[in-house]
Amino acid sequence: LSEYFSCRSETTERAVIDFIGEGCFGKVAKCLDLKTYKSVAVKIHIENDENDIKCEVEMLEAIRTLDPEKKNITRFLESFRFNDLSCLAFEILDRSLLDLMFERDLMPMTLSEIRPVIHQLLVAFDALKGISMVHTDLKLDNIMLVNHKDQPYRVKLIDFGLARPVSQLKVGDIMQPTRCRAPEVMLGLRLSEAVDMWGVGHVMAILCFGSSVCCGPCEYDLMKFMVQLVEGSSSPGWRLNSPEEYKKEAVKKCQQCQEGLENEDAMAFLNLLRSCLHLDPSKRLTPKEALKHPFITMIHLVNDKDTNSYAGEAHQLMAVCSTCHSDEPGDPGI
């Protein structure tokens, strides 16, 4: 594959301008539609199994029933074959959250920047839950900024290559990147949409702290870390902090929050984070429940948005959400 060749489908012809991404599946090309003269992204499968490609197309056809703007999901245009390669065409987006974090030298985002991102992800996962689909592969490089210059922190969920209907999830299925893997996946327990909410919690932690909350090169180390976090350990070096100690340290990490509104916002963030990372999937918040959480609704900030700079900035950054899903539960009513 090289630049400056064209790929033709039954509906149009597209000129390849550049290659903007790659993975184990193949490459993603930025193309110019020679009929509309609009840029599109074309995912070109090179190595994938035909059954895997068929499953991905089925999932993409299923999400076509969802409004890509209101539900914050990538717009799928069509699937086609060119030179015996399977190709998938999508709207062109800006760059991933992973790219943004690297541009910031992995400097943590503020809570006011994190909130609209998580709000939009929750809307996307609530929509997927509504059609009984699990994404299974949430990570920073699968969260795309739409147009960061004109719409700061407007995001969409991409890459449905590993998505599955809930009915097809089987005990023992391996999914999610290792460091993002939910405990029920590691333990071979019954799986549900709750695995995606674990992924949301993991994303929240990375954006806030600049690193994963779980550490370890393998599942055993990850599970040991999770258990020690919840239950403590006989080793003095692994003593579990008291709730007061935990809050004190966590708030310190949450951008050195001051007393007052910032402190209250940090507490709301940490409460939502812990609710998404509950070891028991049945006790994890659903997307709909999370959309009603105080961190998302900003109920503790609403009365001060005109008089307090922190509350004002929080509401300003959440404005990007109001144009996408004003009818959703937890809408901040901006």
Automatic annotation (TrEMBL):
This is Protein kinase domain-containing protein. Keywords: ATP-binding, Kinase, Nucleotide-binding, Serine/threonine-protein kinase, Transferase. GO terms for molecular function: ATP binding; protein serine/threonine kinase activity; protein tyrosine kinase activity; SMAD binding; transcription coactivator activity; transcription corepressor activity. ATP binds at K43. It comes from Sparus aurata. Belongs to the protein kinase superfamily. GO terms for cellular component: cytoplasm; PML body. One of its GO terms (biological process) is positive regulation of transcription by RNA polymerase II. It holds the Pfam family Pkinase. Residues 14-296 form the Protein kinase domain. InterPro entries: Kinase-like_dom_sf, Prot_kinase_dom, Protein_kinase_ATP_BS, Ser/Thr_kinase_AS, Ser_Thr_dual-spec_kinase. The lineage of its organism: Eukaryota, Metazoa, Chordata, Craniata, Vertebrata.
